[in-house]
């Protein structure tokens, strides 16, 4: 696909070489499985490259499941898309140069992994739509390093289940999802986002003991307070919730230490 091998810190789009200027990794856990959201941006100052082609960005908008519970386990893993979506319905990614376009096919390979960082090789083909030379199925390849987030949240996908595993001995379960979603449906229909008032009840099972808690929402989904039953050995923090019930999307995000 390329005349020479791309080096770490480089991004190559067909025959244009860019320097990686930004790289970021988003991540969360879903049922003890890491979900990754890599994002890389690169630039060239080559004046022979048309100005509109001098900045590129490659990113994963909705993330992909890795089948691993720890970052160290990712080394050597490859995630391959032969078309825009894989069998799990996960996108191959998005590519931006002229505008945001879906990646048609791609491979994400984890070259190195430790407790602080990942080295990622990402290659594939994407539409650019700039000229005959940079039109459809234009090959790209990049190698970049990303820092692992200091804190990785736990995500409960309510359209998959009302509970999630935190580890082998810990599980979080929502207790009144149906009731909570009645308020979600009401504000979604009325548009009264600053009048979102409800309580989300949950249970954290630690070993053979259950600890109940609740998240109290007052005047909007971003204004909330968590109350936890005394004696719980884990520190539980509710971060936020995102929902669009009509689109089949409802995600609850937590930090649990």
Please give the alpha-carbon distance between the first and last residues: 45 Å
Q: What is the average per-residue confidence, as pLDDT, rounded to a whole number?
A: 94
Major sheet details? 8 strands, antiparallel, barrel
Helix proportion:
under 10%
The helix/strand order is EEEEEEEEEEEEEHEEEEE
Question: Please, how many helices?
Answer: 1
Structural category? mainly beta
Question: Numbering strands along the chain, what is their spatial order in the largest sheet?
Answer: 1-2-3-4-7-8-9-10
Number of strands: 18
User: Looking at the chains present, what oligomeric state does this protein adopt?
Assistant: single chain
Mind explaining what this structure looks like?
The chain has 257 residues and is mostly beta strands. The chain is built from one helix and 18 strands. It has one helix spanning 177-190, and strands at residues 10-13, 16-30, 33-43, 55-59, 64-65, 78-81, 94-96, 100-113, 117-126, 138-147, 153-157, 163-167, 170-174, 198-206, 209-217, 224-228, 236-244, 249-256. An eight-stranded antiparallel barrel has the order 1-2-3-4-7-8-9-10.
In a nutshell, what does this entry contain?
Helix content is 5%, strand content 52%. The protein has one helix and 18 strands.
